[in-house]
Amino acid sequence: MGLYDNLRKIDPYVPGEQPQNKDVIKLNTNENPYPPSSAVLDVKERYNTDNLKLYPDPDIKKLSDELAIYFNGKYNTNLTKENVFVGVGSDDVLSVAFQTFFNSGKAILFPDVTYSFYDVWADLYKIDYDVVPLREGFLIDPEDYNRDCGGVVIANPNAPTTVALGLDAIEKILDDNSEVVVIVDEAYVDFGGESAIKLLEKHENLVVVQTYSKSRSMAGARIGYALGGYRLIKAMEDVKFSINSYTLSNLQIAMGVASLRDEDYFKKSVEKIISTRDRAKEKFKELGFNCPDSKTNFLFVTHESIPAVEIFEYLKTKNIFVRYFRKPATIANYLRVTIGTDEQMDALFKALEEYIDKK
Amino acid sequence: MGLYDNLRKIDPYVPGEQPQNKDVIKLNTNENPYPPSSAVLDVKERYNTDNLKLYPDPDIKKLSDELAIYFNGKYNTNLTKENVFVGVGSDDVLSVAFQTFFNSGKAILFPDVTYSFYDVWADLYKIDYDVVPLREGFLIDPEDYNRDCGGVVIANPNAPTTVALGLDAIEKILDDNSEVVVIVDEAYVDFGGESAIKLLEKHENLVVVQTYSKSRSMAGARIGYALGGYRLIKAMEDVKFSINSYTLSNLQIAMGVASLRDEDYFKKSVEKIISTRDRAKEKFKELGFNCPDSKTNFLFVTHESIPAVEIFEYLKTKNIFVRYFRKPATIANYLRVTIGTDEQMDALFKALEEYIDKK
């Protein structure tokens, strides 16, 4: 055996391109086009870098506390910091959740078209999985998840399809799988979905995962979190403390708290994106595109006559980046287009009009 | 089977206490008592929080590049960014390294007294391991690592013993284990050890891990890195991109670059700690303590007549925190004392004098 024979071999997740050219219109990684709350800037201004000499709080107590208080106010729940796990973006949180919850040896279930990181984590942690085909119109049918399994992962709203599932359907999945953990990944829920947080007290098998990267305009701050019963959260903490005790800096923690305290700004920037999304949807229709009803900060569009990959390549030549997934086949003729500012969307539609006119 | 039967059960690493009381003299987690370079403050001042809306660079190119340049200047190596892996502190880096390199099914080797996170990662990733007893005086004998194994992990200088191994001994371990990866964990090397970085070109089985948490006064910034051959580093990158694509914020990356560029400040603050350490060692001897020759920013002390645990508990009542490890038995009568400022050490010795006088 040689030196390189025992390296872990795995096909990693491939994130969207991060072009360094500043002139690019970047509609390919579902970032928020608006800056975070000015309260985040204030926190940065006040932060004393001398304190970097000390380790941060490994328990991230201040942010866990604040998240519990925030959601208690929003959903009338009784969460405490023991119900909150915070990590380096929701990818870190989901990675720890997969390691913590899916050890039965049975296959876990998730849709065939969904966040393409789920099968990467399952492969990395040697978790068996079955993908469940979406129904017509990219719909998730809860009945398809009513079978013996090691756990369930549902992105709601789903990505890249943009389609949201009602809480009645989520509740049926929870009831049908009461002996295993059901993760509801709500990365995009603030753009029109309905959060399962209000189901937490009734369903102890539920873990809800959210992120600061989309609706809070803080993809660069790397903050995600899970909410669940304290026994599930404690098990996640034990796994986290077996990987890396100190994950978030105190500056990240303070920025996270500041964002939560500026609800007005949060609501306004979400509303702006929703209104741009509705306008963009109409415009796409006028140009011969179709898309499902989006509850996210992006649209999943397909053109009636022009192949998606051609539009994708053309837009790149115009310095406009959108996301194209070559597989699975059911979505190979779709483009995922992040909702940018009105100006960015206007530039996109101008380019598309020119292109389609020439066809 | 019930909901809680398939949770991952693991005994996590327990970090040193992080008392929230500001009056505490904190000599228990090997933090640096001096602030980071003022260049780090400058970076923070200039950082535009509006950019938090975007994801950071997943490849952390700027910092990888700068680290390669820095070490090429220091050791006359030919490193490029392809030889550098950056993570959320060296714990994150080591965790990824264990997952990436130790898949042979054979037991890996590390000393019985060393960083107590190694066996936690091995347990988490189901890696078999044998601990190798230290020799008299807490010495590592390279001959003890000359056996069929799945890999080797050596902290150099070792913790909590403070003892450094010469590069001749490291080279023997590398030669005897040329078909497996040897990780040399150099968290404390800047305080008097000799880095194995200069051995990288000759030994393709070597991976050197370092951190910003100790000598660069940036425990709170969460930056660690590994240096190695590009095939080993690429394999680590593949594992990282299967866990979390975006780990470090652009602010952390920029702070890491800034620290590297202020070599004067780095040297001066390391020298100050070494000089305080030498003075503290003499003072401990006067008070009836013994300790090995330390090449780290802490001392590992044992008293000739008073049990370590009693001194530990007494110091706590004086708001002075040091670290005490109950096991293994060979170190149960030792205390690990971080080197603080001269003022902090004076306060420690005043408290110890009072205590020992009363005995």
Count of domain modules of chain A: 2
Structural class of chain A: alpha/beta
The proportion of residues forming helix of chain A, as a percent range, comes to: 25-40%
Q: Which stretches of chain A are low in confidence, meaning pLDDT under 50 for 5 or more residues running?
A: none
At CATH level 3, the topology of the largest domain in chain A is Aspartate Aminotransferase, domain 2
**Termini separation of chain A:** 58 Å
Run of helices and strands of chain A: EHHEHEHEEHEEEHHHEEHEEEH
Q: Order of strands across the widest beta sheet of chain A? A: 2-8-7-6-5
Second-tier CATH architecture of the largest domain in chain A: 3-Layer(aba) Sandwich
* Number of DSSP-assigned strands of chain A: 13
User: What assembly state would you assign to the polypeptide chains in this entry?
Assistant: homodimer
What is the strand content of chain A?
Answer: 5-15%
What summary fits the major beta sheet of chain A?
5 strands, mixed
Give the CATH class of the largest domain in chain A: Alpha Beta
Provide a count of the helices of chain A: 10
Average pLDDT across residues of chain A? 96
Q: From the alpha-carbon coordinates, what is the Rg of chain A to the nearest angstrom?
A: 21 Å
Q: Report the principal-axis shape of chain A.
A: globular
Task: State the largest interface.
Answer: A-B, 87 and 87 residues
Q: What is the CATH H-level superfamily of the largest domain in chain A?
A: Type I PLP-dependent aspartate aminotransferase-like (Major domain)
Organism (chains A, B): Eubacterium uniforme
Keywords (chains A, B): Amino-acid biosynthesis, Aminotransferase, Histidine biosynthesis, Pyridoxal phosphate, Transferase
Cofactor (chains A, B): pyridoxal 5'-phosphate
Family (chains A, B): Belongs to the class-II pyridoxal-phosphate-dependent aminotransferase family. Histidinol-phosphate aminotransferase subfamily.
